[in-house]
Amino acid sequence: MAYYGIAMLLPVPKSSSLFLTPQNSMAPDFSAAPARSATDSRRRDLVFVVNPKGANGRTGKDWKNLLPYLRSRLGNDCNISESFTSGPCHAIDITREAIRQGADAVIAVGGDGTLHEVTNGFFWGGKPVPCEDPEVSHTTALGLIPLGTGSDFARTLNWKNNPEDAIERIAKGQRSRIDIGVIRGEDGEYHYFNNVADIHLTAKAGYYASKYKRFGNLCYVIGALQAFFGHQNQDLKIKVNEGEWEVYSQVTALCIGNAKFFGGGMKITPNADPRSGNFEVVTLQDFKWYHFIRYLHRLYNGTHLSVKNVSSVSAQTLEIEEVSGNSNIYVQSDGEFLGFLPRKFCILPASIEMII
Ligand SMILES: Nc1ncnc2c1ncn2[C@@H]1O[C@H](COP(=O)(O)OP(=O)(O)OP(=O)(O)O)[C@@H](O)[C@H]1O
């Protein structure tokens, strides 16, 4: 499938178009980028990774409308490159290549799924991706223009749903280190997340919700209803901070928050803070469908921690296995389905610089 490659890291004349020539390769094409000269050393190289299919296609349209303002606000001080994703996981490859080339920032344009993929592009084989240009001394920052369906990470940062505000933050370029969560499964693969990783009912609901994104935020309601059919609470074995294994009985859902929100605005881990160095782990046990109806408003406004059978702990590492051994407990992170238990979760404190 054709996609739009990046025209990289050069001053963009004000009159030139930001829309770039379609390439036929499946990898980002940086080969045409001439070496940077001493004169452009003070210009920041920004790579915008745009998911044109985000928010049921709205992201692509909003981005097109935003471009003239973005160019006028950033074009004088920054070299602007854009790259459209061609499908799932493409944002990971684009990001890795941009970091290797020494971009100042890679900016996710889309929803939490796009942010999640760009974040995963900051790492490879369990380590941060290094810049391969010996003349570059800066690190690459992560940026975000939230244009997705849920945009839950932006909520934790108290960002308004206004892309012009996001461009203003990018113009200022203030950076802050944030924590990132990492998940490992039996295959030894690393998987990174910004927001919330969750297990069992909520993960199953997210899995189904992803099939109904065309209905906007309603997809989360449809996904939850579908997940309830045939759902059974399960006993789980959990090890917190390398301590002893403990059995948590009749777990309905377990949510590991690096940030506060998931599912399009549910404040599930209300004390999580991506600058704290810890996860907040919230467990719902022995919940029935009618508990969700009764406490839904509290789950949304983050006042559910005092509800019976809801617990919260702070943790840096967490290992989770099922007791039954049926291999049917769903795991997701940042709304992306990851497979089934067992999994190990660790926090990587202050591991990425984010434009904030
Ligand atoms: N060109 C593409 N075509 C189809 N899917 C894509 C394409 N590019 C990326 N994707 C996939 O789209 C998924 C969802 O994108 P994104 O998160 O931007 O929007 P969203 O789901 O509407 O928002 P949110 O995650 O905030 O609810 C991503 O996880 C990604 O794998």
From TrEMBL:
Name of one Pfam family that matches: YegS_C
PROSITE patterns: DAGK
UniProt name for this protein: Uncharacterized protein
Biological process per Gene Ontology, one example term: phospholipid biosynthetic process
Cellular component, GO annotation: membrane; mitochondrion
GO MF, any single term: kinase activity
